[in-house]
Amino acid sequence: MVKYSFSSSNLVRFSIKKLRRITSLFKNQSCKKIFFLLMFYPSKVFKTFYKLINDGVSNLKNKYKLEESNIYVSDIILEKKSFFKRLDYKARGQVSKILKPNSKIKINFIAL
Predict the structure, then answer these.
(1) Contact in structure between 30 and 72 (CB atoms under 8 Å)
(2) Contact 111, 68 (CB under 8 A)
(3) pLDDT value at position 25?
(4) Contact criterion met (CB below 8 Å) for 70 and 112
(5) Alpha-carbon Rg of the chain, whole angstroms?
(6) Residue 101 near residue 20, CB atoms below 8 Å
């Protein structure tokens, strides 16, 4: 019997471009293999993905008594959120805008 689960994070302080580079590594992979990949990447983005994937896997483990090797990431949904707006003060009274992007991540799991 196939079982589904998801985990999401509403406000992540990364741009969509940085997140899209990583999502192609994780789609349709077993969670055991993903955890092995995440151990060797020192990026802050990978730590966020590790927390989200670990959350979804632990939900399926506790709810249905499954093993990690049977749980797969079916798809990852990324959405743009609002920007944090800041000002950068420069010489001669000039000001430029700094837009700090935010994102939303939703990871869907499937257990076979």
Answers:
(1) yes
(2) no
(3) 85
(4) yes
(5) 18
(6) no
Residue at 68: amino acid letter: E
pLDDT averaged over consecutive 10-residue blocks of the chain (112 residues)? 91 92 88 90 89 93 90 94 95 96 96 90
Confidence (pLDDT) at 42: 83
23 backbone φψ class: left, alpha, beta (φ>0; ψ -120 to 50): alpha
Cα dihedral value 97, 10, 55, 111, nearest 10? -120
Q: Which pLDDT belongs to residue 15? A: 92
As a whole number of angstroms, the distance between CA 71 and CA 64 comes to: 11
3-111: what fold? Answer: Ribosomal Protein L22; Chain A (3.90.470)
